[in-house]
Amino acid sequence: MTILDGKKTANDIKDEIAIEVEAIKKKDGKIPHLAAIIVGSDGASMTYVNSKVKACTKVGFNSTLIDLPENTTEEQLLHEIDLLNKDNDIDGYIVQLPLPKHIDEQKILMQVDPNKDVDGFHPTNVGRMTLDLPCYLPATPFGIMELLKRYKIETSGKNVVVLGRSHIVGRPISILMSQKRPTGNATVTLAHSRTENLAAITKTADIIIAAIGIPEFLKENMVKDGVTIIDVGITRVDDHTKTRGYRLAGDVDFKNVSKKAAFITPVPGGVGPMTIAMLLKNTLLAVTKNNK
Ligand code: GUN
């Protein structure tokens, strides 16, 4: 069994980005600039956004964090987005999800300039992705593909089962893996909460991508020997033996499933760091694209 080390791979990617950033600075005097908007004070979201900001520093990017209170109105948020769209120094930005319930997420994402949409969530980028056109790929699916690529895991002709149909992970990764592209050409099944006989389906999988947000959902008796497991889940589970009061759990029963797997991502240290690295990669793409 080989651990797919997302932390190390993400660090390799960040080192590569840092070299490119130096070259851009020398050539154009431009420092790539990523902004992030967060609304409210959800603990997990704040941790993720802070990690994204820290990663910017590591590769030599400028970063701006726009931290808005929970009671921010939709109108105020749309105004902040307009300011970022108009700000020529900002190359790309993200709106951290989920947003508070009183804000219409799709309305907000539609307002983001597709050229600065480094999360790849705007319908223009989703449509372009679906049609195999150049676009920003959403960072988590992009990170999964990059991890499979760097570990030379064959996907062509393989059975890939994706668990979960979210707009951020399940839906886009199911599209990407089926496309005629490197780390694609797979036969993809997208399973979800209404899927019947799930174990019979997951047992046929060469690669399982679990993105449902249910801790330790995927069990040993649901997978075949030699399977590759990508665990996207990262849920805070109460654990009073820890000083912080919780532990992080993936969607996969790692202890038992890893006995049968050929390759498996850990949680934490698997997909999470890759998501951040690919967000930086998209921001670099925004700089080079807009400089042309
Ligand atoms: N919430 C969970 N994952 C993501 C992500 O990749 N981007 C944003 N903006 N919010 C998220």
Q: Could you characterize what this model shows?
A:
Helix 7 (170-178) links the parallel strand 5 and strand 6. The chain has two domains: 28-113, Rossmann fold (3-Layer(aba) Sandwich); 139-271, Rossmann fold (3-Layer(aba) Sandwich), CATH 3.40.50. The protein has helices at 6-28, 43-59, 74-86, 105-111, 123-130, 139-150, 170-178, 198-202, 254-257, 271-291; strands at residues 2-3, 33-39, 62-68, 92-95, 159-163, 187-191, 207-210, 227-231, 235-238, 246-249, 261-264. The protein is globular. The strands form three sheets. It has a six-stranded parallel sheet with strand order 1-11-8-7-5-6. A three-stranded parallel sheet has the order 3-2-4, with helices on one face. It is an alpha/beta fold and 292 residues long. Bound molecules: guanine. Guanine (GUN) binds next to strand 4 and helix 6. Residues 94-97, 119, 139-140, 168, 275 line the site of guanine.
List key phrases describing it.
292 residues, alpha/beta, Rossmann fold, 2 domains, 6-stranded parallel β-sheet, 3-stranded parallel β-sheet, 17% strand, binds guanine
Q: Could you provide a short overview of the structure?
A:
With 292 residues, the chain is of the alpha/beta class.
Rounded mean pLDDT is: 97
CATH C-level class of the largest domain is Alpha Beta
Number of strands: 11
Percent range for β-strand residues? 15-25%
For the largest sheet, list the strands in their spatial order: 1-11-8-7-5-6
| Helix proportion range | 40-55%
Query: Over all CA atoms, what is the radius of gyration?
Result: 19 Å
Instruction: Categorize the overall geometry.
Output: globular
Molecules bound to protein: guanine
Q: What would CATH call the homologous superfamily of the largest domain?
A: NAD(P)-binding Rossmann-like Domain
Order of helices and strands: EHEHEHEHHHEHEHEEEEHEH
Distance between the termini: 45 Å
CATH topology of the largest domain: Rossmann fold
